[in-house]
Write a structure and sequence with these properties.
The chain has three helices and six strands. It is an alpha+beta fold and 144 residues long. The chain has a six-stranded antiparallel β-sheet.
Length: 144
């Protein structure tokens, strides 16, 4: 199974409508369509920041796993919100450092009109957990 397909099977990603489109060595692109259920309030036209965060985390995680070839849970993520998200979003993730135990990503999120909506910096655990991960028995990762 390829990594994009693996991430697209995630119940949480499907719930939000996140689709991982491409995963290459150390990089990934994911999309989030604007849906009324993602709005931050009933009368507004802005996607909730939590949905934007989830998009960044999904793209960052896919980029990391493309290198680690193992379950790599999120340790920390910082998101700088730069503009309101009012249309479909695209996240481009790149691994900026990949080590034996941690990997760091930079994720740029733009709307489909080209507005820079957010920048995220994520840290993911890439090793050292052995069999002590709750994902080990339930997640098939290519290369394992």
């Amino acid at each position: 199974m390829d990594l994009a397909a693996l991430f697209n099977q995630s119940p949480f990603a499907r719930l939000l409508g996140i689709e991982v489109e491409t995963v290459e060595e150390g990089a990934a692109e994911a999309r989030l369509p604007f849906e009324d259920d993602l709005r931050s309030n009933p009368a507004g036209e802005v996607i909730h920041g939590g949905a934007t965060y989830a998009l960044a985390d999904t793209a960052g995680g896919a980029a990391v796993i493309s290198l680690s070839q193992a379950v790599s849970p999120t340790v920390d993520m910082r998101v700088d919100y730069l503009a309101p998200a009012t249309t479909d979003l695209v996240a481009d993730a790149e691994v900026v450092r990949s080590g034996d135990h941690l990997a760091m990503t930079r994720v740029e999120i733009h709307d489909v009109e080209g507005t820079h909506v957010a920048t995220a910096h994520g840290t993911y655990k890439t090793g050292g957990q052995g069999d002590q991960t709750p994902w080990a028995d339930h997640t098939e990762v290519p290369g394992e």
